[in-house]
## 1
Amino acid sequence: MLSKFQILFTCIVLLLVKAKAQDVKLDSVALNINRYGLKTAQSNLFVHFDKTIYTNNDQVWFSGYLLKNMTNLDQYHTLYLSLINNSDSSVVIQDKFLIEKGFAFGALTLPDSLPGGSYRFVANTNIKKDNQPDGEFVQPIIIKSTTVNPLTANVSIFKAYDEQSKNGTALLKILSSDNRFVENAEIKYHIGKDKQTLLTGTAKSSVIGELMINFPADKITANNNQLNVSIKKGKDIRYIKFNLPVRNRSNYQVQFYPEGGYLVDRLTSKVGFEIKDLEGTAITAIKATGFLYENDRVIDTLQSNSTGLGSFSICPKPSKKYYVKLFGSEQESISYHLPAVLKHGAVLTAGTAIAENDFRLQLVANNNQKVHVLVHNFADVFLHADLILAANKTQNIRFKLDSVPIGLNTVTILDSNYRPMAERIFFAHYDQLNQIELSTDKNEYSTRDQVNLKLNVTGKNKTPLTALVSIACTQANRISVVNNQNIIDYFYLQQHLKPLPNRPMGLKYVDQDYLNDVLLVKTWSRYKWPEEEVANKKEVLSSFEYHGEITRRKKLLTSPLGLTTIAGENLNFLDTDSSGRFSIPFDHLLIKEQKTPVLLGMVTDRYDLYSLHINNPQEELTKYILQQNFELPDTRAKVINNDYQSITSAAGIKLKEVVITKNNQNTDYAKRPYNKCGDYVCRYNILNCPNHIVDSGSSSPVTGKTYSDGKGGKITYQGCLEAERKPNITILKGINLPKDFYVSDITNKNEPINFSTVYWNYQIKIKGDTSISFNTGDLTGPFKIIIQGVTDKGAVYGEKEIIVKSK
């Protein structure tokens, strides 16, 4: 039975206890919340990359952590990793890696021909929920390239609106890499978004490399204003996107979030606000200032902080209009109206949304009524009580959080008919976040020096925890503050409240002021379950797999046919069913080297009578990825440390401020003696030496010849295994097994060590005080050590910066 509470009109403290609701309607609400949680639940995947700024031909190292699973762990077996170019949404790389017991580890090499720009890695598991990919993780990255794009183009607005023609005009300019006009380039353009097409056209550039593109300005809206352009000159192709202006619209988006959800007549509310540009990016470069109006009278001055957020208090009155105008925005005539004011309702106020063992708030209504108070996490109800509110009498409420899990939880106020009135998100047990003690034997090191780490992970009350972590040590200027993600922010915040406003200083969870601002504006962000009863429908789980069928003379088979798969040294057999259909188990696709193809063959001498049709799960996944909207990060924030702008590419070429000019376009390094498989031998007789990926002294390997593996061992080159399509063979892409980080020989003075990542390791077990050692290379400047991983009590993150100087 629930405890009975005596309600006083002054100040009251409620010690809510966990109990099962006996009220039938309340049971129905709890059931609906639970169904909503099941309906919206998804796998949570986090991927730790060694850095977020790469060069072409760079090596990418990563660890994947399945933080939450929708089904049994053994059903997760493949991590799909795609690299997408943000400028044109083209898929640059797609690869697959083994997931084992919720962990995935891997590496890949970025293509040499990759132009610089903004990209993103998209990671998915093999699991599908209701035929949609489950557990997606997106990591934005920046690529600084030594590859010069022969075509450069930009779009600007030549004329926003012509009164006579009712058109606007966009100006497209095309130049070569040496700033010459590109004449007669083939241009295709498309105006629209998603499936909405407003205008298409084809043309050629003028003698000065320009094209005027007219567009119907009156028909341009926020839903169709994207101009997509493809440019082709000879073999060179360039894609660009540009958002056309929408007439009579502000350059800013201003949204208001009353604490609890609503403004109520004559009740004082705290109102959070967020200011974004038209791209949906928070205004963080400068603080925005505005005036709050009541009808035509200024009643307050507002200012956003460095994250584009802010708040103010207001006591709305009946028949009054409330709005904000931004000062100095060149659009001061545009008004941003506050939400409508309710005649009757309740307002809740929390001094802070960051809680330890209890959470306190104030609740007041402007009429007498009975309410129901729930504490839940959109899946389970943890606390419940019934209250009688007296008109205009503030009541203080305290929630004991002993039964509430760590992380984001929600207080929901329901009226007597169990309809939502107010809601507040808060962070419970903030003091119980895991901590990692990370120390080094010194702060400054010389080149080719040994770094000694001491690690320890603790939880509540400094209790030692066992953790599995990945560790990266990379140049500090390879970590973009804008793009960097950490596992704690993601686990506790981002996966629930995405997208989060950028925090210029990096880590989000350590800043309580930032958390309070975010949790204020994110109130009601997921509040959909009460609008209607959530159907009790069980989700359908499936998996991305290779499957297909074999026909004989275009007819279904009448008896099974044998198949073989060859993945490197592994030979496996399987049979179709009696009609010729089959699926390939994931363990038939495991390969040790990324360049190794998997060969699928039919066991028959009369293969000419049979036809094999097979789906590629990556093609299905690609279509889904390219349909998703991706919000670009705020590139106006500081990306890299200005004191250390020099980035060294995999070729050892220093890219000062990462600007390529005609004077430093030395492309001799690009004449690589790769064979068709991309294999090579460096000048030190090391097969596929990662230290000399782009070295002009490398040569093509010879089949049957023995080379060094770079680790003190020998390896005989088996030849290029790039399979040519044969009548009885189908080429499949395998699932990569984990790869060990290449450890350079620091005693070999003839071999330069120019890796920006000097150390990478995965699935390191930390239990109590744990020691780790690694060596620096030849690059100098600040390096950052980043540790991310998991414990049985949640995620863990740590970082430390060291300095490397020349000897």
## 2
Amino acid sequence: MSILLRIALILILAIGGGSLALAQDAPDAPSSSAAAPVTVDQLNGQLEQLRQTLADTDKLGDAALQDLRSRAQALQQQADQLVASLSPQSDALKAKLDVLGPAPEKGQPGEPPEVANQRKQLGKDKADLDAQMKQAKTVSLESAQLAGQIVGLRRQLFEARLSQRTSSPLSLAFWSSLSRNAPDDRAGLAELGRDTWTAMSKAWQPGNRTPFFICTLAAIALFAVGRRLLEQALLRLTSDRMPAGHLRRSALALFITLGTTLTFGFAAYLLYLGLDWNGTLGEEIGGLFASLVMLAWIAAYIAGLGRALLSSGRPSWRMPALSDDLARRLRPFPPLLAWCTLLIGLAERITAQVSASLSATVAVNGLLSLLVAGLIAAALLRMGRARRALLAAGTAPGKRPLWVGLLVAVAFAGVVTLALSLLTGYIALAFFEARQMLRGGVIVGTVYLLMHLLNDVFESLLSPDSRTGSRMHESFGVSPVRMEQAAVVLSGVTRALLLLLAISSLLSPYNAGPDELFERGSQLFAGRTIGTLSIVPGNIFSALGVLVAGVAAIRLVKRWLSQQLLPKTALDPGMQMSIVTLLGYVCGVLVFVLVLGALKVDLQSITWVASALSVGIGFGLQAIVQNFISGLILLAERPVKVGDWVSLPGAGVEGDIKRINVRATEIQQGDRSTVIVPNSQLITQNVRNVTQAGALGRVQIRLPLPLSTDAGKARKVLLGTMGEHPSTLETPKPSVQLDTIDGQSLIFVCTAYVGSPREVAAVKSDLLFEMLERLANAQLPMSTPQDMVLRRPPSESRTSVDAQFGAPPPATPPAS
């Protein structure tokens, strides 16, 4: 750790010194606050100068066109700022004119001359401001059109370069042209080498020796041990501080990528800083070395990204589904591709620096393209060998995702087309393909890493088991299901945005900078509309922010009302729930209006929508609107409320009301099932509310006893049973009545009252069990025993009876 602290101290001192040196070398720039305001005439002059420069397009390269585009965009911003600054002044003049009112008509009393002069002057000033605003808006529009024209010219120039064809490297003309220009190219390279050595030798002079020595030692320390120490510290951080799960893996991959980029990038910057401490390198050599430092940052990022994704030393931390054998086979390719990227950028700058001949530039580009194609082809071959090795070992390789198969197919097709382009002489096209393949691989790898990282972040933060999820559940009352849904939605939205940005950068026709890529991504939906509603990404994000903030505020207010304020009032729980529900609907409508305002939705569009909705209501939405209005009536008048026991005879529904929504009411029946009843039925049909007025529950039992029963003794037993039950009320007191004598039975009617109708069934069951037991103990039977007597009817003959029971028939008397 002490070594890491020393390295950090050296970095801070070196970077601070470099920043101080750069600050000393930089010219004093005027502050924006002291700059004079731009005028319309100046804007018109700048616009005319841009047009004149753009008129000679044959002498303009891609860099000059890109600079002209930046100037046109800056001019457009200045014009917009001028319009924004003049608008308040115009509004103020209009307000003054409104205060003065219109000039009196003919035949009316005149006004004082001071008022007339003031109105005239104000009108003149407002007309001048309006004219300036119109001119500034025109300049803004023409600047935007000019920027679009420059983009078209850059695209044409790019396509023209790609379509250029030279002699094939297999032909003699290619090599003869290269040999003819070789002496001049060697002389240019030699001169550049002498200038570079002279500039670098100045770094060892006495005034620059100490900073050069310190920066070199710091760079060597970063190269040697800085990356390893940083990765070990980050590994301990992810293992100790982060929750267990996939977030550790994706975070470590990101840390490895950034650690490799920072260490190698800062090391290259420290070397450059030591060489150019006091501007010893000069303008040309210093610019070359500065571009080399930028290329070192890019190459370090490529190497770090490849190391993080392959993770050959830590298979358990590997993000892609790669076998250990394949990861070891592909391990050398990320640094090799990083060196290729460095060589490509360095070759482009050196050829431009020495003004190399066309044949030399084409040869260098062809050689670098061939190198990139060879590396990618070797990587594809190693992937195939690893797959065949798995099959030979009897292990089935993992199922490859569709996008991975497409990526491999694109890489294979790119290698084939690159080789064909080289052989046929389209070396510019081959060089472009090589750069695009490197660039596409970096973009795909970065997007893959960021997608997994964002998905793991949302899943970890919004997991019910995490610390953040527990706090959200305790503070905001968010259910675990809602947190999981929010994690899925946020992950999907961010991954979709990343994918759109990646596609826009992959499909860019030429090398685009960060500003251009951001503008391309932000203008993806520019100019597209849905009806009269324009799709503006900024408005969409603002509306999403308003929606999220509004929903969170509604939940907080409802929770405060339901858990803190309303429980301390005398309102019953049903009324409290009705208030919270109504407030939620009102606040929801308010949030909806605010979201429409953030989307810049025209009120006229809303009027048309409302008119169309009214037509739809007249035909097909009558029942929905009827239930909606009925729900509002139920929440306001409260003929039934949450917790009431209701019965709908017409629908055959009886149970407790659990929730009153704006469209339907949920009634829970005795078997714990829930019936969704439209609110209109509770308004238009007969509803029996058992518990609205606090009605008591009546337990009534009809008990038949034999006619020989001692009625007084039975009455005493039954009254004692009902009076001793803990749920029966003393007032009204229980009663036992002899209702009637039915045949051989006495019908007793036992009546008792309980506190709630919901207790009737349970208390009735308890009383029946107890009554049967006590009646049995008091020897009061429930029925009279009957004697079983077998009688023979007189009409039945003995012969038939004997025959029935199998007896022989009597002998027939002889005839007289």
